[in-house]
Known about the structure:
Elements: H1 10-33, H2 36-39, H3 46-50, H4 52-59, H5 64-92, H6 104-124, H7 130-147, H8 150-166, H9 173-193, H10 195-215, H11 221-238, H12 246-261, H13 273-306, H14 310-329, H15 339-357, E1 360-361, E2 367-368
Antiparallel strand pairs: 1-2
Helix pairs in contact: 1-13, 4-15, 5-6, 5-7, 6-7, 6-8, 6-14, 7-9, 8-14, 11-12, 11-13, 12-13, 13-14, 13-15, 14-15
Amino acid sequence: IRRRRFNIDRPMLALTAATYAYCAAMVLASIVNGTLAADLRFFLPLVTFLLFPISYSTWSITEKTALARIAILASAAACFGALAIAVFQYHWLGVRAEGGAGNPIVFATVTCLAVMLSLAGALSGIEKRWKLLVLAAIAGTIAIVYSGSRMIWVAVPIAGIVVLLVNRRRFTNASMARLAVIGVVVALAIAAIGSRAIMDRADFLVSDWDALNANGDHSTALGLRVAMWEIGLAAVREMPIFGHGITASRALMKQGFHEEFGLSAGFSHFHNGFLTATVEAGLLGALALASIFIVAAWNAARTLRLSVDPVERFGATMVLVAVITYLIGGMAGILVGHDILDATLMVFLISGTYLASGRTVAPTGKDAPAVAPGASRQP
């Protein structure tokens, strides 16, 4: 039996270097601060990133069109499932939709990605059942509204516009105008369905803002975030290059809450992905984390510039919507370091990069055609 080999190509190597640089920065911060033993248990999430080249090589034995269709149909199923869960949790349990993760932001992030893949599948022509995919995208968007995750509410229209722009070549100007009108109508209908959830979250935001400005109340959701950002920025100024390490960062947060705001609170992150990385691993960690998204977006943009193949462009779209959704959601939440979010990010980066610019390798290690005969191939 021939041993399967790594599928090594330039986009995969670039992303591997970025992910490994982030892992190295996290470990280096602990070594510099002398907290390696205390931080060891927090390094487990890094395994997801370290497995990137192995996972990429494993996934790349799959025929590209088949993988794209699997991603599209699985996303559609996820959207319908998300709506069913959201309706049950919001209307029967009286809580924000949070899925099985127990976290509305995580639920909304994953659902947003499923919505975008359903929409991309409908517009790309890869999957012919476009009406089903459009319904799935609408269902998923309603579920996101029920989650009450305001940052993902921002991410949905931005990512949706990107998906439309990527697929604009398939439509005339008149068709694009009609799509835009239909999109606005659908958005208004979704807003009407979820008006109660939207108004509730808007009221909470206004109330938290008033409490923070008028009374300096940091005990609200908004106030806690502002407090964490202030504590985090102060910690960055103390150790800007290598950071404090994971364990010390969490201790600094608890100490800051107690001493500066008179609160007994503590979180595993600073509710801003790059601030968390900077506190834990300094500017080295933040730059390494940013490089993952920069390299991924660069690979996707190159594919969109050079290729007209629908499967390759779909893969690039997967990467772009993941980058957009994670960066926007991570501005006021968690970017990496959560098991579900980390696994989902790697799935999108691996499959998206492979579909966009990777080569298909047979299980025995022999190269297989990366694209169907007659389809365009990037130079």
